[in-house]
Amino acid sequence: MKIEQYRIIEKSKFDDFINSLITFSKVVAPVYKGFKNYIFQEIKSAEQVSLKYIPTIIPPKKYFMPQRETILQFDVNNELKVEPIVEYENLVLFGVHTCDIAGIKCLNMVLSDKPKDTAYLIRKKHITIIGLECNDYCDEYASCSFVGAHIPTTGYDLMFTDLGDYFIVHIHSSKGTDIIEKTGIFKPAKDNNIEELRNLRAQKLKIFNNEVPTERRYLPDLFDRSFNASVWKELEQKCLSCGNCTAVCPTCYCFDIKDDVDLTLKVGERYRIWFSCQLDPFAKVAGGIDFRKERSARQRHRFYRKFRYHIDRYGMVFCTGCGRCSRTCMAKINLKEVLTSLIKESEAKIWRKWL
Amino acid sequence: MAKVVIKDSPYNVKRAKILDIKSLTEKEKLFKIVFEDRSWLDFEPGQFIMVSLAGIGEIPISVCSSPLNRHYFEICVRAVGKVTNSLHRLNVGDIIGVRGPYGNGFPIKMIEGHDLLIIAGGLGLAPLRSLILYAIDNRRDFGEIHMLLGCKTPKELLFVDEIEEWGRRMDLHFACTVDRADPDWKGNVGLITSLIPGVDIDPLRTYAAVVGPPIMYKFVIKELLAKGLPVDQILLSFERHMKCGMGKCGRCQIQNLYCCKDGPVFTFKEIMDMAEAL
């Protein structure tokens, strides 16, 4: 920890910070919407911000990869004219938890893989991320320690950590430095502040325990053994195939591409829209054949995309442990429970082999 | 919201002009296409392009002309959905959008020097036609070439003129079958699998290229394995509804493989243990 990268800000000054941030940029932060629901939305004053919040309904991926995004505009009035476009805006995302930062890292991985998604890269460049560290679990659905997303590592410009009556702020980029300088409320951190941060991190190691009875490095093995597990058949009975889990997942990025025209039928746009492997038409082809007809196969596909396939392709687990899928599931399919049953079933198989 | 034009977007399409349209059957038409800037679609047999009609949509279609033809390229389209039906209503001279080529085609460099067994069911002949034309253009680089074609009825036979010509050639072994014959049909009747036991091949030096409706693969592969073909010499091309063609949209995923990026041509070895593939 380099002390020159740290600043502190008193909690009494926090509102001043947000209000001064609003004067020079559009600021998006978690806002309480009732019934334990929080959302990321643009704020107009500091009072709106919820500092203690459980993961928002939709993760901040909606700013990086909007649910509906125009990719081409066309005009067929005289002759076909096509223009690929990107829409972006300067944005400060305040209060992003480490799980959602991990989710953004996953999107980066996929969309900056060749061929690069130019629109995404442009949009990303205009977003500043201010993180907010969790000192404790948000609720019982989280499994961030299992995937290693509970401690801030990278992927933010500034990181706020709550240390009682003040926040300690880690500056991670020059974009972050700009904000520190422009708002001008921060004080340099002293040795005792760093010491307190160290203590908090040590304390966190005790609070955050592995939520799933296995380790991350055993995931490939576990999933290689589990393709025909009975767990998937059980999910078939529960799952309603509604697609909620994928819509709220910070690392789900599958999409559909559609065209739309205005009333003249001459001018229109091609847009990209979130889609879900849980929904019926996803794996269908022209002849009407559906390559993942059963809900069990679709749920299995979702879990394999989080914990197996992308480890081979991108070297990363595509679950951030935010717990959104379990929180939102109408049929109460719980990610941690599914993993635990998989482990149990697979262990039983191994023992049978030995005995 | 700022809005800017990004010419280097991977979703950008190139304007292409329809040079000629030929009805092959009741449902299939062959489109001869050229880029407006006369540039060359540099592709490998088995690769696909994204064809788009502004306001209607974009679909993946495999190129069916010879990759060595630099003047134009051809696609064979069956009218089944919104975009394909609209394509069928277009006229010569109309402009469409094209991006690509995408995917991995048939591994020509590996096939060269070996015998080639082509098995095409129905519309599967379209992507294979590109390979056949390439092999005919470079005939001396290949060993024996066997072609087995099958379709439902004689009326649905594609590329009839070319098939007749291929049947006359001395350097091709050719057989054709239909599921249900009509009174004028003089050839074989039966499923395409019935032709396989009869072909005279040396299995160890033969690559089989198989394209057809999903249901066909299982039975054809069984026959090929019975013939003694090694699993890594059976080449299959898969149909999925790719939306981006760049390994992002997730629509064409077969377990850890993307049909658009890792395929659409796979060896049987790559997918033999995969559920959801066939």
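The CA atoms of residues 40 and 70 of chain B lie 5 Å apart.
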